[in-house]
Amino acid sequence: MIIMNIPTTLIGGILALLIAGQTLNVSSTIGLIALFGICVQNDVILVAKINDFIKQGMALHEAVVKGAMTKLRPILMTDMVMIVALLPMALSKSTGAELHKPLAVVYIGGFFFAIILRLIIVPVLYETMAKLAMKKSKNYPGTNPIFSHCSFEKRCQKIQSPGRYNAGIFSRHDPHPEN
Fold first, then answer.
1. CA-to-CA distance for 177 and 179, rounded, in angstroms?
2. Which end of the chain, N or C, is surrounded by fewer C-beta atoms within 10 Å?
3. d(Cα 39, Cα 174) in Å, to the nearest integer?
4. Is residue 88 part of a domain?
């Protein structure tokens, strides 16, 4: 789901290059790669917060809305700091600016586009995919389809369950045998 947001970031970066009259070159390509990483990280943070709210027992729609609203400010602040920091590089007319300008333009355009779409696309995709997973899991009562893929969740359940897993995640032997 998070990987599906990369094309929207790519569109923002390419549109910014077209608007600024810049070309797609090595510098702008490096900017796109770095932009993908930062945007994926922000999306992972958003999805993790939504998962936290669901684990606390909130309804799906309420968790999605509250997660998006809770993470709006931190994500917006980090993206705006990057945009403001890159403005001098994007507006520079000095020697060598033609090398760094495409990178800054890609960042600025990609972040603007990602900010707007992150608040719409990621929550909508999350809710849609979670509802589809819940429909598929109706044949398997007692399972949580949202977290069934999470190996960390499974390890936590093993640690908290009584018996041989009480020694911890990394233990190979059982220091507390069952009675």
1. 6
2. C
3. 43
4. yes
Q: Which two tokens stand for residue 6?
A: 């990369």
- Domain residues for the domain of 116 are 3-137
Section 4-24 average pLDDT: 88
Domain count, the chain: 1
Q: Which tokens hold the place of 145?
A: 């389809």
158 in a structural domain: no
Do residues 108 and 22 touch, judged by C-beta distance below 8 A? no
Q: In sequence order, what are the residues at sequence separation of 6 or more whose Cβ sits closer than 8 angstroms to the Cβ of residue 173? A: 167
Contact 52, 146 (CB under 8 A): no
Distance CA 164, CA 176 (A): 7
Tell me if the pTM is above 0.85: no
The CA angle 116-39-71, to the nearest 5 degrees, is: 65
- Domain presence at residue 42: yes
The fraction of the chain above a pLDDT of 90, given in percent, is 31
Q: How far is CA 42 from CA 29, 60, 152, in A?
A: 20, 20, 20
CATH number of the domain that residue 44 is part of: 1.20.1640.10
Give the containing element (helix H, strand E) for 124. helix 121-136
Token couple for 78: 């980090």
148/39: higher pLDDT? 39
Q: Quick check: is 157 in a domain?
A: no
